[in-house]
Design goal:
The structure is a single chain. This protein has helices at 7-27, 46-62, 80-93, 102-115, 118-130, 244-259, 265-276, 290-316, 326-348, 366-377, 384-395; strands at 135-138, 154-158, 161-168, 179-185, 196-202, 208-213, 222-233, 237-238, 280-281, 284-285. By secondary structure, the chain is an alpha+beta fold. The chain folds into 3 domains: 7-100, Butyryl-Coa Dehydrogenase, subunit A, domain 1 (Orthogonal Bundle); 135-243, Butyryl-CoA Dehydrogenase, subunit A, domain 2, CATH 2.40.110; 260-395, Butyryl-CoA Dehydrogenase, subunit A, domain 3 (Up-down Bundle). Strands 1-4-5-8 form a 4-stranded mixed β-sheet. Helix 1 packs parallel to helix 3 (80-93). It is globular, with a radius of gyration of 21 Å.
Length: 401
């Protein structure tokens, strides 16, 4: 396979790099939004959130915010190579790929494009692109996380409205969002993968209560969301009634396509190599120790594999919606991110218990923050175990568990 780029593609990279370098210098700290291991979905500081919104507006004005969307819906219908270059350059700087509206741009919008009505596309897509309306995703529940089809939140159709009651949990960015895609059970007698519907919900509707969840990192980007007789217009149904599982899977597949592209593992590896030159391991400079060198070499191999998995997932979308191939990048990137965080902990020893800002913290304490958050990334968007099952059953043709 030829991985060289044409002069036109290199010209696009040069133009894009200049744009992103300027955004990074003017809006974000060195190392980008994730320099301390903080997810863009966990932005709780109002000033930082405003910088993120400004970054989104710049992406939008420059035509970069949704390269993968069709032109008729405001995107650029970019080819896989162009998308790969865009991913490479944003990952290089640790910048959020879809500005402030990640959930809308990389998964909810494409689902509406695929399954929504013309009226829904006209109403919602333009403000997703501009950042005028921020979106969140109402999927997980206290007893329906990885087993998403076990959800209990109900929606009863009364005349021209659904009346919703229930609870969602781990709802990223709900505290910033104006809208939400919401999975609800509309037929309690159907098998659990049926009787589910996919609704678009205004988060300002009476009866919705949002409560923050504080993580071990101290971040407050996750939320509990409660629904008490929330009325949602029937016109906000995406796809057919009781056929929401189809829409939910489309959203998840789009999410996993970008799952391997949300973790800047190659950039983080560069920081890990720099760390190995700052500390000692068994009495010698860590980067000179054979064990450390072997680990770093394996991480480099794995990081390149993640990049190739990203390219392959993008290429698989050339003529079809994303499928099981998207699980590779998500699985490889999040597991590698966890292994590197654990190895940094091994190198730092007692220093890694120092939080960001603490006296004596090495690397501004970023590795302790990353270690605390790394395990969660292997669960979000479908756990590692779920990804293994998808790959085994749908790609390798292995029997179901």
């Amino acid at each position: 396979m030829d991985f060289s780029f044409t002069p036109e593609q290199e010209a696009f990279r040069t133009k894009l790099r200049g744009f992103l370098d300027q955004c990074a210098a003017e809006l974000f700290p060195p190392g980008g939004m994730s320099s301390l291991g903080v997810s863009l979905l966990d932005v709780t500081d109002d000033a930082q959130w405003e910088r993120l919104l400004e970054y989104h507006r710049r992406l939008y004005r420059a035509g970069y915010v949704a390269l993968h969307w069709p032109k008729e819906h405001g995107g650029a219908a970019a080819d896989p190579v162009t998308l790969a270059i865009f991913q490479d350059e944003t990952l290089r700087l640790g910048l959020p790929m879809f500005g402030a509206n990640q959930l809308a741009i990389d998964r909810i919008g494409p689902t509406i494009i695929m399954l929504g009505t013309d009226q829904q596309r006209r109403r919602y897509l333009p403000k997703m692109l501009s950042g005028g309306e921020i979106w969140c995703q109402g999927y997980s529940e206290p007893n329906a996380g990885s087993d998403l089809a076990a959800l209990k939140t109900s929606a009863v159709l009364e005349n021209d409205h659904f009346v919703i009651n229930g609870q969602k949990v781990w709802t990223s960015i709900a505290h910033r969002a104006q809208f939400q895609c919401l999975l609800v059970r509309t037929d309690t007698n159907a098998p659990k993968h049926r009787g589910i519907s996919y609704l678009l919900v205004d988060m300002r509707t009476p009866g919705i209560t949002i409560r923050p969840l504080v993580q071990i990192t101290g971040e407050r980007g996750f939320n509990e969301v409660f629904y008490d007789n929330v009325r949602v217009p029937k016109d906000n149904l995406v796809g057919a009634l009781n056929d929401g599982w189809r829409a939910s899977i489309a959203t998840l597949m789009y999410e996993r396509i970008s799952g391997g592209a949300r973790h800047p593992v190659e950039r983080d590896l560069g920081e890990l190599i720099a760390l190995s030159k700052q500390v000692e391991f068994e009495g010698v400079a860590a980067y000179r120790h054979p064990y450390v060198r072997q680990k770093l070499a394996q991480f480099l191999i794995d990081a390149r594999t993640v990049r190739l998995a990203r390219y392959r997932a993008l290429d698989s979308m050339r003529h079809q919606a994303p499928g099981a191939q998207s699980s590779f990048g998500k699985l490889l990137a999040t597991e590698l991110n966890l292994r590197m965080a654990n190895f940094a902990d091994e190198l730092l020893g007692a220093h890694n218990v120092l939080a960001p800002g603490s006296f004596g913290a090495i690397g501004e304490g970023r590795w302790s923050q990353r270690l605390l958050g790394a395990r969660a990334l292997t669960i979000a968007a479908g756990s590692t175990e779920v990804q293994h099952n998808i790959i085994g059953e749908r790609i390798l043709g292995l029997p179901k568990e």
